[in-house]
């Protein structure tokens, strides 16, 4: 197989089990938890490492921000042998009972992105693999983490729709979203992020497996900072230990799935 255009990887470069952070700087941090690790490629926003974690072949590729670049990463990873994807990222929450530093497991996603609609109609659900969700729950309980399972809202924008406001231009489009976050809270949506929907749709369409976990950095219904406007430098919780906890949770979740797969094979 030829070298993939964006990720600069070939078949054999990646393992069947792949972690997907957004930030390329996080990939080396994730790989530092493995027994064996080496950098495969570094191209654009995509950094790929492959190695071994507790006997499991594992890879980690950064997706960049949002569904378009994430879909590109998944396309090229799947062509090179990736079978199971686990998104590990940061998110906000709409729910007051969820605290900063908690881990949320996504079993489904609202498709408020554009990329997934080019692969399947909006009626097609964005749902995680049951195997992956169960493995995440098992691993995170074992780690003693505060965990919540539910639906996330995946969108293409970070600042838009904040009624604080968040966008540089508080124009007429903003006013129609004044109650948007409160509506999502009432619908029991637990998280806000930018990638899960396309990951779930693509994996389901292709007959592969995918899931997602994220660490909570803020409550998007409340965060406004001292300025009274949405400012991520003021309002988000920038605790580095949250990312360390997330990285370990991702590795342990995939390993729990790996053990489940081995036991299933031994039974068969």
Tell me about this structure.
Strands 1, 2, 3, 4, 5, 6, 7, 8, 9 and 10 form a ten-stranded mixed sheet that branches. The model has no long low-confidence stretch (mean pLDDT 91). Helix content is 33%, strand content 26%. The chain is of the alpha/beta class and 268 residues long. The protein contains eight helices and ten strands. The longest helix is centred in the last third of the chain and has 28 residues, at 240-267.
Helix content: 25-40%
Percent strand equals 25-35%
- Based on the coordinates given, report the CATH architecture of the domain at 88-267: 3-Layer(aba) Sandwich
Averaging pLDDT over every residue, what do you get?
91
CATH class of the domain at 88-267: Alpha Beta
**Computed structural class:** alpha/beta
CATH superfamily of the domain at 88-267: Nucleoside phosphorylase domain
Characterize the main sheet: 10 strands, mixed
Q: H/E series, N to C? A: EHEEEHEEEHEHHEHEHH
How far is it from the N-terminal to the C-terminal residue, by CA? 32 Å
Rg, Å, rounded = 18 Å
Q: What shape does the CA trace take? A: globular
Could you give the count of β-strands? Answer: 10
Poorly predicted regions are none
Oligomer: single chain
CATH fold-level label of the domain at 88-267: Rossmann fold
Alpha plus pi helix count: 8
């Amino acid at each position: 197989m030829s070298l993939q255009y964006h990720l600069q990887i070939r078949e054999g470069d990646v393992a069947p089990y792949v972690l997907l952070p957004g930030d390329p700087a996080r990939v080396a941090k994730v790989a530092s938890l493995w027994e064996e690790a080496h950098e495969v490629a570094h191209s654009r926003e995509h950094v790929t490492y492959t190695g071994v974690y507790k006997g499991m072949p594992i890879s980690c590729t950064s997706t960049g921000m949002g569904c378009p670049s994430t879909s590109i990463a998944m396309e090229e990873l799947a062509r090179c042998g990736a079978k199971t994807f686990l998104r590990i990222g940061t998110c906000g929450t709409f729910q007051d009972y969820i605290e900063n530093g908690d881990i949320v497991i996504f079993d489904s996603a609202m498709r408020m992105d554009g990329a997934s609609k080019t692969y399947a109609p909006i009626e097609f659900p964005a749902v995680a693999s049951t195997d992956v969700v169960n493995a995440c729950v098992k691993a995170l309980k074992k780690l003693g983490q505060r965990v919540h399972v539910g639906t996330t809202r995946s969108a293409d924008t970070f600042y838009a729709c904040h009624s604080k406001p968040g966008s540089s231009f508080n124009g007429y489009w903003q006013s129609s979203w004044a109650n948007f976050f409160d509506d999502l809270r009432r619908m029991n949506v637990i998280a806000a992020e930018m990638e899960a929907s396309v990951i779930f749709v693509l994996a389901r369409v292709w007959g592969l497996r995918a899931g997602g976990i994220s660490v909570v950095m803020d409550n998007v219904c409340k965060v406004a900072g001292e300025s009274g406007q949405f400012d991520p430098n003021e309002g988000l919780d920038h605790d580095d230990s949250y990312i360390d906890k997330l990285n370990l949770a991702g590795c342990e979740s995939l390993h729990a799935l790996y053990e489940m797969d081995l036991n299933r094979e031994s039974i068969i």
